[in-house]
Structure formats: structure tokens, C-alpha cells
Amino acid sequence: MTQIPRAAVIGNPISHSLSPKLHNYWLRRYQLQGEYVALQVAEDALEKTLRQMPQDGFIGANVTIPHKVSVMQLADHITDRATLIGAANTLIFKNDGKIFADNTDGYGFIANLRQGAPDWDPKAGPAAIFGAGGAARAIIVALADAGVPEILLANRTRPKAEALKTEFGTRIQVVDWVQANLMLADARTVINTTSLGMKGGPEFKVSLEALRPDAVVTDIVYNPLRTPFLQAAEAAGCITVDGLGMLLHQGVPGFERWFGKRPEVDEETRRAVLS
Ligand code: NAP
To answer: Which of 174, 183, 107, 119 is nearest to 145 (CA)?
Structure first.
């Protein structure tokens, strides 16, 4: 008997993840045999779980907090972009038991910007990034790859931004968090990668008064969809792109590898995930 191909998202906690909704929607939409589940995996159970999963019919997995960095130690093949970012979010289990690891967060970020702001030109001018956490790493790599000439980076904990500059090169200028608003005067791409603005969490308080109306502004926080950060940018006349599309697009390469069909990210997909 052939087993139904299974994939999962692994993390801890995991109940908030939208990935099962997304992948099961695509499976239904394309009438594919398959199943996608959420697995809560404690840090000390990661290796055992990954070794067991192929035996339970899993062909791959998405990886989320807190395992994105530690899975790198357990992978047999790692893509260049995952190596550069230092973290993986997509795994493929090969027939011989080997684990292939990729990072599609930067891809998802860029695909979302290109879909939401089709005229966005990464080369038009500097990008300003708020935040220097895990997501910022993937975004910095993707923006540099897309040809952004300069990256202005502000983080509450400045040494973390300095560390990214050391790692990713001279194209990055670190700006103090208390002066983060100054990044906006020249920026043509503006991104909030902090968790500020999430429903129930602390507010994003940096003034956005200096935003250029020709800037493309995106927030990777997607709950709520229209964050106060995006609302302020919209009021300044900027084109804004919400963060849900990043989540949807980052799922595309994994789904295609596991289930053999490149899925669409469109209005119907958004509705299915938000329902
Ligand atoms: P992370 O590694 O924990 O980084 C969190 C970032 O937020 C850091 O830069 C941190 O600054 C900053 N921050 C947190 N609280 C702050 C505060 N009170 N004031 C100023 N800065 C603060 O998390 P992450 O993985 O990068 O994720 C960041 C956010 O992006 C989360 O909300 C996550 O849900 C979202 N996200 C969305 C997608 C998507 O697909 N749309 C993908 C990944 C992540 P310090 O360094 O000073 O602590």
C-alpha cells in the first residue's frame, strides 16, 4: 500500500501556525493526495523527531521558532541561501534518509513585495530596516541579492545590528534606534521586521513623518493585517504591502517539492488562510 505523502510544520509552540491551513487548502485546490499537520516539538526532541518522520510517511517539513537554526546541524545538504542566512525553514526528506535544508523566507519576502507593489524597484535607493532578528537576516540577504544599493538598519539592541553588518558587509549602515526615523529621508524601501505592532503587543513608536511618498513600505507582522505602521505609511501616500503574503509565498517552494505542483498565491489563497 502506498502511503499518502505527509508534510508538517514543526515548532514550539505551534498551535498559532497558519501553515496547516495554507498547505491543506492548496492540497484541496489542486486535488492532490497529501496531508499537512502541525507538530509541536520540544528542543531536546528535535533530532529524534526528524529521524522518525520519514518512517512515518513524512516527505518534508517547514520549520519555525525555535528550531530554524538548530536544524542546520542535522541537515545533510544545505542550500547556499540557507547557509548564508544561517537558518532553515524548509526541509525535504530524501529516500535515503538524508535531510535537505533550504530557507525560503527571503524568497517569500521578495515575491510578496513584487506581487503587492509590481513597480517596486529595489535599485531605486536605500532600504531602511527596523529590527535585526531572525527574519531580518533573511530579508537582508534577499534585498542585497535583489540589488538594493544600501541598507540602513536600526535595532533596539544595537550590537545585533552591528553583528549583521559585520556578517553581511559594508552595504549596511547601522543607525541608532533612537534616531531610526532619520533612515526614512532617503529610503525607497521601508520594512518593519520587529514584532512591534502585533496584536496585543507593544506599539511601533518610531515617527514615520520623514517617509517619502514614493517609498514602498512593508510590515512582516500580519496580525493585524493593516498594522498601525502600514496605516501611517498609507497616510503618507506610500504604497504598502502587508506581511501575510510573505508567509504564503515562503510556503510555495516546499509545497512544490513535496507535492509536485507549484501553487498560486492569490486572493483566494489569502481568504482561505484568513477564514
Ligand atoms: P526575533 O528574531 O525574535 O526578532 C525580534 C525583533 O523585534 C528584534 O529586532 C527585536 O529587537 C525587536 N523587538 C522586539 N520587541 C521590541 C521592542 N519592544 N522594541 C523594539 N524592538 C523590539 O523574531 P523574528 O523571527 O525576526 O520575527 C519578527 C516578527 O516578524 C515577528 O512578529 C514574527 O511573527 C514576524 N515574522 C513574519 C513572517 C512572515 O512571513 N510575515 C516571517 C517571519 C517572522 P531586539 O534585538 O532589541 O530584541
So the answer is: 107
